[in-house]
Design a protein that fits this description.
230 residues, six-stranded mixed β-sheet, single chain, 8 helices, alpha/beta
């Protein structure tokens, strides 16, 4: 069951912001980071950031290049030992992947209703090959219940730096990382088209943004019109 405290307090915010500055510096030293579309990020109001999921360090990249603090929703099995203490010190909402976690969903909705921003990965798990997979349903409900706008975001390059199945990231070679923020989608549109159509449209939107970002980084396009190779 998800924890429902909102982790208020100046110390936690200072710690969160200080960690962002430190990680920003490390990322600039290790990789070439290219950021596009920052002007599309609303400065206030309830915001659900939906991104593709390439590696363990996606949350660091999602958070550090925008001017807002983000809440993240890691699986509850990660909240153990020293690593769990570190996760719990930031703005996080643990969620169970074993069953429908109603308590976690309510906490996410409450955070959004307070006008804050939450980041989710609608693929549900990290990519195996760098492509954007089909989305899991459910985030349309969060939008309708919370009144949040949706911000599409794509990441490129982290799959090569820390691919699924490897224990540690590659910390050499100055591999490039690309980030692209799309234009926010208002609640009214989500209500108008319905959840099923919105999820399908948004999946295609993120795939198109992925190829747009890859073009900016001089990388070949991915043919999303054909199934992923097995």
């Amino acid at each position: 069951m998800a924890k429902t405290n909102f982790k208020e307090g100046r110390f936690r915010r200072v710690w969160h912001c200080s960690a962002r500055i430190l990680v920003d510096s490390l990322l600039y030293l290790l990789y070439r980071v290219q950021v596009y579309g920052k002007k599309n990020v609303p400065r206030q109001g309830a915001l659900l950031v939906l991104s593709n999921h390439q590696s363990f360090i996606d949350p660091i990249v999602c958070q550090n290049w925008m001017h807002r603090l983000l809440w993240f929703v890691p699986r509850d099995s990660l909240f153990h030992g020293l690593w769990g203490m570190v996760l719990d010190s930031f703005y996080t909402i643990p969620i169970s992947q074993e069953h429908s976690d109603i308590a976690a969903m309510r906490t996410i909705i409450d955070v959004l209703k307070r006008g804050e921003a939450v980041c989710l990965y609608p693929e549900g798990s990290r990519t195996l090959d760098g492509r954007i997979d089909e989305f899991k349903p459910g985030f349309g409900l969060l939008v309708r219940r919370s009144g949040a706008s949706v911000l599409p975001m794509v990441i490129e390059g982290l799959h090569e730096i820390w691919p699924r199945g490897t224990k540690l990231p590659r910390l050499w070679g100055r591999l490039p990382i690309g980030i692209l923020y799309g234009k926010p989608i208002p609640l009214e549109y989500v209500k108008e088209v319905g959840e099923e159509r919105f999820v399908a449209e948004f999946n295609r939107t993120l795939q198109a943004m992925h190829n747009e970002l890859r073009a900016k980084m001089n990388r070949p396009q991915i043919d999303y019109s054909s199934p992923a190779p097995q």
